[in-house]
Fold this protein.
Amino acid sequence: MLENPKRYTITAALPYTNGPIHIGHLAGVYVPSDIYARYLRLQGKDVAFICGSDEHGVAISMKAKKEGITPQQVIDKYDGIIRKSFLDFGISFDNYSRTSSEIHHKTASEFFKKLYDNGDFIEETTEQLYDAKADQFLADRFVTGTCPKCDNPEAYGDQCEKCGSTLNATDLINPKSTITGETPILKSTKHWFLPLNRYESFLKEWVLEGHKNDWKPNVYGQVKSWVDGGLEPRAVTRDLDWGIDVPVEGAEGKKLYVWFDAPIGYISSTKEWAAREGKDWEPYWKDADTKLVHFIGKDNIVFHCIIFPAMLKAEGSYILPDNVPANEFLNLEGNKLSTSKNWAVWLHEYLQDFPQKQDSLRYALTANAPETKDNDFTWKDFQARNNNELAAIFGNFINRVVVLTNKYYNGIVPAPNEFSEVDEQTLAELKAYPAVISSSIERYRFREALGELMNVARLGNKYLADEEPWKMVKENPARVQTQMYVALQIASALAVLSEPFLPFTAKKLSNILKIDALGWNDVTTKTDLLPAGHQIGQAEILFAQIEDAEIQKQLDKLEATKTANKVENAKAEPQKDIITFEDFAKVDLRIGTIIEAEKMPKANKLLVLKVDTGIDVRTIVSGIAEHFTPEEVIGKRVTVLVNLAPRALRGVESEGMLLLTNNAEGKLVFVNPDAEGVINGAMIS
């Protein structure tokens, strides 16, 4: 670990511009990195907080093909949505760039060319999957097939999402092209590889020995597993039509692999920032007194802890990350977040549905952060944390302090009289909190740090509850002056200490208290955060209650997504054996109307129906009672198989069969091609 660095370069994983930002991205990367950057700035540190849109690679091409637009249209659309979402949510990047920018193309090309000229790559001709119908080589995500390790029939060419195994496309059993559905063939192609095996000893010394005690166990463990398993050369180029051209002769039609190009985006984004601010970018990447920290999700560990460091080591002039505090995954209501399945809480939609509640989500995501294991976000937990913690603890304390100060002293901070032992203990405890919270933040334990921040609010609530100034104000007004002075110091400390976690609340609270700029360490070193005679403003609600109806709306939205996914993913049953026209001619189908209906006694599934078939009125027993009440079906027009041999069911003779099918939710519906949720291929039975 680098002690007392001169500057900090903080990077947050570049989001793919194939979709908006969701809460999994926020919890895993962007909220913790923003907390860290804001905290360092409050300490007066030199910080470059860097990010940008990742706009190359297969994900973009797949999205473009799916939507029938160009890759450029895809990246422009989602870059705009992502930028605005981050800005509105208060993620305080010093620079947010794009890998499609000219400065990035130039930086990535020069980086590749230097390694190429130094002989750091090996050139190999390999057999890769090729779609003859589409006339193109298939990148990893354009191939699906059966995983050779767990038999998942929908594994991708680079990874099986069911068992988590890393794969090569050629490992798949029965591979299929996602472009045409054709079975691909093997075809020779030339590529350049970074020989990771050359860097095994370096990685063992740097990570396995050098960071055994300060990197998170999940990060260290994954790196150790890869290194112990033996590293192999990794391709840094791809046969694609979208990306950065490989800048050497004989590489026509080939692009830089997105995982070579994307991390260089941190460097090009820093260059862009430095040029705009009139700074020199190089110290932020090449000075040994700079602390470099990568914030990522666990799926990016290998790229940031093995591949990118190997690239930097090969280049020779760059520093290595001091830490890579990767988080685990956040699930949503018990299911894995998925962009493709729309199973997500999208940030831009949240900001529309919950205006002015950025901090409520920041708080919930930090309090439930997946720092050591996968965690689950639920809307009920989100509501409880807002109402029972932010509003009831933090907001309640601030409201009481501000209301009482205005009531007793017209909003002027009273001069304290003699401090009691309780006052001195409370103020001493308050002064200790910055160091406690700092310790947690600097060890990347943001959930723990947030808990300590809330303990400051609890300290204030307990002090007021124990001292009860509202009871003492008439009999001992001099004592109440001291009590309110102490309470106002706690409120002021909260305005400072909450800023990394709850920036919108901190700003609102600073405006209420009319606080000028205070630094993190002022809470410990200053005698008066709010001096006697200082005028504060009127009380405002910091955290409004979130009502049940608002939460139900979100749950209904997710339920609609489930239904839509079932419809989209529903598959028709295989065709039955071929029959002749003569076979079909034997079937007598009539339109009828149900005129009576009642439940079959002691049978949960059966309804006894009277059906007017047009040729007679007959009894039909149907197993639809779990889907329809008798009242629902009376008067319903139905399709009836009238020449089915009669059959006795529980003593009642049934003379025919109603034709029904299932919708995507598994609910029976009477045969009607226009019924909601009925797919092409739905079997009538």
In short: The chain is about 40% helix and 15% strand. Residues 543 and 619 are 62 Å apart (CA to CA). The radius of gyration is 32 Å.
